[in-house]
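Anyone? Bumping this.
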Amino acid sequence: MSSVKVPFLDLKAHHDPIRQEVMVAMNAVIDENAFAGGKFVTKFEEEYAKYCEAKYCVGVANGTDSLWFSLLAMGVGQGDEVITIPMTFLATAEAITYAGAKPVFVDINPQTFTIDVTKIEAAITPRTKAIMPVHLFGQCADMDPIMEIARKHKLFVIEDAAQAQGSKYKGRLAGSIGHAGSFSFYPGKNLGAWGEAGAITTNDAALREGMQMYREHGQKKKYYHDVVGWNGRMDGIQAAVLSVKLKYLDKANNGRRRVAARYNGLLAGLPGVALPTEAAYAHHIYHVYAVRVANRDVILKQMGERGVSCGIHYPVPVHLQNAYANLGHKRGDFPISESCADSYLSLPMFPELTDQQIETVATEFKACLAQSKS
Ligand SMILES: *Cc1c(COP(=O)(O)O)cnc(C)c1O
């Protein structure tokens, strides 16, 4: 068994150059005792709204709360339906369930891995309240047709932009197009905290007020509660960390685009391998670089043995998870998501990957393909 030559993600390499700057920012929070919500959160909210070209940002505890509070602020609840995709992290559907509504799935487009906009209208019923497209792997869903369908049927749109900080659709920032944009700052995301955090962007003042209320026990004024909310505040230390890291987000995203371009060049034309594609409308930020390959499980194992750590995002689509057995879905209901789940292989992806490491990944991947055919 060889040691790891190329890790899947190297957060230490990402943080070492800014460690001192972040430590200074964290010390300022300690000096001011601004730990739960507070001035550092307000500062980050202003900076992140500006970055996303949205009017408002509401900082919350994580990227699951941000989806949930968005739905609650829109009045989505018992008996309602929300349309989303089954090829996503479970949190997308969980938030819909915790709002009291039912997730209704639409399959993905096999080129972009985002919601197939031609299949949305067939999934709309009188109970549908919202569409929740997911900007999977860092590439935006095709937002223009989604917004058009939403206008026609009077639905809300929540962008699950957990993997898309700085991603663009026709030049517009992810999170600024729908009625709300939901972000996760889980440490491994493109913009990652040193702990857990999330945020919602919106251009709608009423929605913002609702989101602020739900993250703060349903109160607008301390100890006066208008609705039953939750404790979903952003941590002050995380806000300070994120304010520093936001300054380097574009540089990091460009680093990921460099890595993706290198992979695209080195792996072009391999028979039986589909590389990720960037739609004409998109500025893809490659949170995940997933190829599709037959014999995926064998290749994943061989890559590991050769010292290259890969991942699968995600091995089981949401409609086939035990947690959602109650929805009564079966294999065959969303064939593209299912075949992606069976064939996706995420290669190492982080901005600091060296050309040497990228070449090692490509060389070992080609060797695995040859080995799996012999
Ligand atoms: C990470 C992620 C979430 C959840 O974010 P947390 O901060 O971990 O709660 C939601 N949706 C998608 C698509 C994600 O990748």
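Late reply, but here is one note on the structure posted above: The chain has two domains: 13-106+114-246, 249-373.
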